[in-house]
């Protein structure tokens, strides 16, 4: 290994700093230091978690929130603009994403006694204003990132609780079942992200299965697309139909399952099938009970779980939870009927 | 020189695609493309992030005569220098 000679190491590339200076954005030295220390601390955490000692005493943190401003570059952890307990900033997007991450963290803690994405209280890293007119949001294995949207199809993606819930749940899936991102296991990965994005929105709005709209991303749609959404869990395939986005391709039954290679084998397409199942089960036993059943099942899934083995796993948990009186006695029947309704 | 650009992925399934001759690009992007063609290895991403969920995957094919270059990026390894070209081509696709 090469010896690390004395050099100016910094998180923010020098040319970005120059551009930011030109634009009048000051980058405090301590922010850069915090970012570097933060990365180092996270590396230590990961190393410890994978060590034998971690199996005996899992390290627990506080799931602190850190919000970074990418300043319309495609760089993450560029400028630390708000951290846990810090005062609100003048940027409403920063404050909204900070509050939403708090709501999601509280939901997982209260509903399942599950802390942060890894149940060890990992810090929650949120990047906003990523890229130029970037009309997307993603989870990258470590943190969440949100673009400002193009202003036409999507407005700022950091504004929506269900979108943040979707991305953070990708982290939860990563640390539990670790569902691979291809084909049916990938569609289940997307399904879980949609389920908890929707459930957390329902809890926050004090809705029930009957009063919820079951839409994902309806609050990020641009001015000309009001009333449409990214997905409908109640009626997959009907969320959008417009010249800018095309038509929602999600099937709601196995007889229309997508078999192509695009979208990693249809991870965002075929998730419509289990999404419909969740909607039907939640309608039968109420959303909070269905969420408990889905979460307990998630902890038992394998990375390669397909729709059929997912059904088996859900039914097994339904029986177990019904015996423990944590879900209604007829849950197993409701689940069976719901899977049958989509051809499973 | 012919450029073929495509982008897949994102929160909702969408494929963006466009083709353009380099002569139709703005002057600064033409220079950039010439650089890529002469030094393709300098623009190859180090590695893809297999944990990326909902991110975009970009593909850029350059063809001049018999020479063919294929570059693949995602949101986390897209080089700064290439971003203006990707941004321009994405706008040409007419997709968000």
UniProtKB/TrEMBL annotation, chain A:
The keyword Phosphoprotein does not apply. It is found in: Secreted. InterPro entries: Metalloprotease_M4, Peptidase_M4, Peptidase_M4/M1_CTD_sf, Peptidase_M4_C_domain, Peptidase_M4_domain. Residues 177-343 form the Peptidase M4 C-terminal domain. Residues 99-174 form the Peptidase M4 domain. GO terms for molecular function: metallopeptidase activity. Coiled coil: none annotated. Keywords: Hydrolase, Metal-binding, Metalloprotease, Protease, Secreted, Zinc. Its cofactor is Zn(2+). It is an enzyme of class 3 (hydrolase). Its EC number is 3.4.24.-. It holds the Pfam family Peptidase_M4. Its main location: secreted. Transmembrane segments: none annotated. Extracellular zinc metalloprotease. Belongs to the peptidase M4 family. This is Neutral metalloproteinase. It comes from Spirosoma utsteinense.
Automatic annotation (TrEMBL), chain B:
InterPro entries: Emfourin (IPR049457). Pfam families: Emfourin. This is Uncharacterized protein.
